[in-house]
Design brief:
Number of helices of chain B: 15
Shape of chain A: globular
Number of helices of chain A: 12
CATH class of chain A: Mainly Alpha
CATH architecture of chain A: Orthogonal Bundle
CATH topology of the domain at 65-313 in chain B: ABC transporter involved in vitamin B12 uptake, BtuC
Strand content of chain A: under 5%
Structural class of chain B: mainly alpha
CATH architecture of the domain at 65-313 in chain B: Orthogonal Bundle
Distance between the termini of chain A: 66 Å
CATH class of the domain at 65-313 in chain B: Mainly Alpha
Number of strands of chain B: 0
Radius of gyration of chain B: 21 Å
Structural class of chain A: mainly alpha
Largest sheet of chain B: none
Largest interface: A-B, 49 and 48 residues
Order of helices and strands of chain A: HHHHEHEHHHHHHEEH
Oligomer: heterodimer
Chain lengths: ~325, ~375
């Protein structure tokens, strides 16, 4: 593999990791608060559709992003109503949200645009512009720094940088603020939080809403940054890869970034090469596609360190009387 | 929000019916919102699914798939295990069917049916036992592992179809056609024996009888055998079951074996009964519909049977909608999602008004 190809692959790794990173952090915050969320996929899909549809109609990508976040938060609140207020099964609610998204995006897309469940392609201001980082042009020909800074790091849409900034932000909020402490406590021992006079319900709704915002950004980037428009089922399992990355990272923000970069790299390599040879062994493209899931199962099985979810995850909180 | 007591008969009839009514009402609003008439849509769906033996044939064909996957989810739910992996298990079941049909020369379809059923069940069970084992012995969450196994199954099948089973020189990732000897008798041939005319077009076949038989078998297993008692006891209360000497690990693994086998059996209907070859998307989401079917059928085989017919009707009716009105087929996915939402996640919300009604009657 020559340098140019390597730069290309790493460049697209960053792009492919971005929606995964948003969704992974979204799931992380929700699950840290004790609300399991397997509906990341659905929220991303709804957001992707809304972003593309509204960006096309308004001609402004940021109005599209706002609509995407609003739609995703609405879905997140539906999950909240089912799993916090009505104490329903959080996993089943997540499954329902995924199907709701898969169905309703196509029904509405067909009704609005009549293009077989897709939106028209976006162009100009309806798509996310690529940003050149300062001095990117001037260091272009510097050895090493040039390819890394100009070739890989520079020239992405704003949301790519936002996603990576969300990593330290999430870490800070979770581990250095009172809100974060309470949020983690509510996922481990909600009764203790309740005894301290803090509302479990409000905290969990807060976490679910943040999860909605981040999934909204994930979907918006997918439809207006990574691609130029919405097509049916365009998330294609990314919500589940993000879920896998979250488990792989054992619910920790910095590790989450590592996990999504690894999974992004796998996707980038699988896109670039149909069949790879590693140490004389032909690796089929399907093995690359399945690798994130296999790695997650191995981690879950505790063969390489143990992945222990927040203790109160998945169970609704019932106040004692 | 302590939902009051609801008599058992109401719990198994009124609650699911009310949930479905809510799901249908919201779907009607959606149809109206996209500028179509809900009333016309319902008429078209009922006409398309039940108005002819052609429609009935397709409805029953889809229902056969959903009975298998619904039973698979229901058996797991009885032990309070959520098997989302029906999709992957059915994919692997298809591989089992294809290997049996392609590599062994069968003199008669009846022998092939028995062997293919065993192959489908075996492969489905084998795909389910790994998550089952990991949950039982290593404590990994079964929902996550079964989701992951769906994706792994899709990749594995993709690899096998492209690199192993694909017809030489063909671009299509599909296995060769099965020999004509293993074609299953269709419903119209079976009904012709007793002199009932039936459309020859729909792929509904003898697997329907296998599905109905499995409903009885699952009922018998759950309510008339020691294992079934243990499964239900385990589902009611794990500590109590353990105290009574039931091993949670053993029950988890057994339940996943049975569940995976049932999901795998779906391939007998779709792969052997309809397509007559193995293709990439042989399952087409039926594994997931099993979740809605089990929830609506209250995890009881008879309930699963009725719910599977309802979803068969939705699928056949939905195809007609897509054909004659400008309502895409995905509307059915919305209805399916709403059914899962109301019967599964918002169960307590649906129960409340019904419980209040009974409290009013009983309280006076």
């Amino acid at each position: 593999m020559d340098i140019a190809t390597l730069v290309q692959v790493l460049d697209s790794t960053l792009r492919l990791a971005t929606p995964l990173l948003f969704a992974c952090l979204a799931g992380l915050i929700s699950e840290r608060a004790g609300v399991f969320d397997i509906g990341l996929e659905g929220k991303m899909l709804v957001a992707a559709f809304m972003a593309a549809a509204i960006a096309f109609v308004s001609g402004n990508v940021w109005i599209g992003v706002a609509a995407a976040v609003a739609a995703s938060v609405a879905m997140a609140l539906l999950h909240g109503v089912a799993s916090i207020t009505f104490r329903g099964n959080q996993l089943i609610s997540g499954v329902a949200i995924n199907f709701l998204a898969a169905g309703i995006t196509v029904v509405i897309a067909q009704n609005w645009f009549r293009q077989g469940g897709r939106t028209p392609s976006l162009s100009g201001d309806a798509r996310m512009r690529r940003i050149d980082l300062p001095f990117a042009e001037s260091v272009r020909d510097v050895p090493f720094l040039g390819p890394v800074y100009h070739g890989i790091l520079s020239g992405h849409a704003l949301l790519v940088y936002v996603a990576f900034l969300c990593v330290p932000l999430t870490w800070f909020v979770l581990f250095r603020t009172r809100f974060g402490l309470r949020l983690r406590a509510v996922g481990e021992n909600p009764a203790a939080v309740d005894t301290a006079g803090v509302s479990v319900v409000r905290l969990r709704y807060g976490a679910v809403a943040i999860c909605g915002v981040l999934c909204g950004l994930a979907g918006a980037y997918l439809a207006t940054g990574l691609s130029a428009g919405f097509v049916k089922d365009m998330t294609a399992g990314r919500g589940f890869i993000a879920l896998a990355a979250m488990i792989f990272a054992k619910w920790r923000p910095w590790h989450a970034m590592g996990a999504v970069l690894l999974f992004g790299l796998l996707e980038a390599v699988a896109n670039r090469f149909q069949n790879m040879e590693i140490l004389g062994l032909a690796v089929p493209v399907q093995a690359m596609q399945a690798l994130p899931y296999i790695l997650t199962v191995v981690i879950l099985a505790g063969f390489v360190g143990k992945a222990i979810p927040p203790r109160a995850g998945g169970s609704p909180y019932v106040k004692e009387h | 929000m302590s939902a009051g007591r609801i008599p058992n008969w109401a719990d198994v009839t009124l609650v699911p019916l009310f949930s479905v009514a809510l799901a249908f009402a919201l779907s009607a609003v959606l149809i109206w919102a996209i500028g179509e008439s809900p009333w016309d849509a319902v008429k078209l769906m009922v006409q398309g699914a039940f108005g002819s033996s052609y429609g009935w044939g397709y409805t029953l064909f889809y229902a056969t798939n959903f009975i298998f996957t619904g039973l698979a989810v229901a058996v797991a739910f009885q032990a309070r295990l959520f098997n989302i992996g029906g999709e992957g298990q059915a994919l692997l079941g298809g591989l089992g069917v294809a290997l049996v049909c392609l590599y062994i020369p069968w003199p008669h379809w009846s022998l092939a049916l028995i062997a293919a059923s065993l192959g489908a069940a075996l492969f489905g069970a084998a795909w389910a036992i790994i998550p089952g084992y990991l949950q039982a012995r290593r404590g990994s969450h079964i929902v996550i592992t079964t989701i992951m196994f769906n994706f792994i199954a899709a990749s594995l099948l993709g690899y096998i179809l492209v690199n192993v089973l694909r017809v030489r020189g063909s671009q299509d990732p599909a296995s060769p056609r099965f020999p004509a000897e293993v074609a299953l008798p269709k419903l119209h041939e079976m009904l012709a024996l007793v002199g009932i005319p039936f459309s020859r077009v729909p792929p509904v076949n003898i697997s329907l009888l296998l599905a109905i038989f499995m409903c009885f078998a699952v009922w018998f297993m759950l309510w008339r055998t020691r294992l079934g008692y243990q499964i239900r006891a385990f589902g009611e209360s794990e500590p109590a079951a353990e105290y009574a000497g039931i091993s949670p690990a053993r029950i988890t693994i057994y339940v996943m074996l049975i569940s995976g086998a049932l999901a795998g059996l779906m391939a007998v209907n779709s792969v052997m009964g309809e397509q007559q070859r193995l293709v990439l998307n042989a399952v087409e989401g039926a594994g997931f519909i099993g979740i809605a079917v089990a929830l609506m059928g209250r995890n009881h085989p008879f309930g699963v049977f009725l719910a599977a017919i309802l979803f068969g009707f939705l699928y056949q009716g939905g195809a007609e909608l897509a054909l004659w009105m400008s309502i895409p087929r995905e509307l059915i996915v919305v209805i399916q999602a709403l059914v899962i939402l109301f019967t599964g996640a918002l169960d307590n919300m649906v129960r409340m008004p019904i419980a209040r009604l009974f409290a009013l009657r009983g309280g006076r």
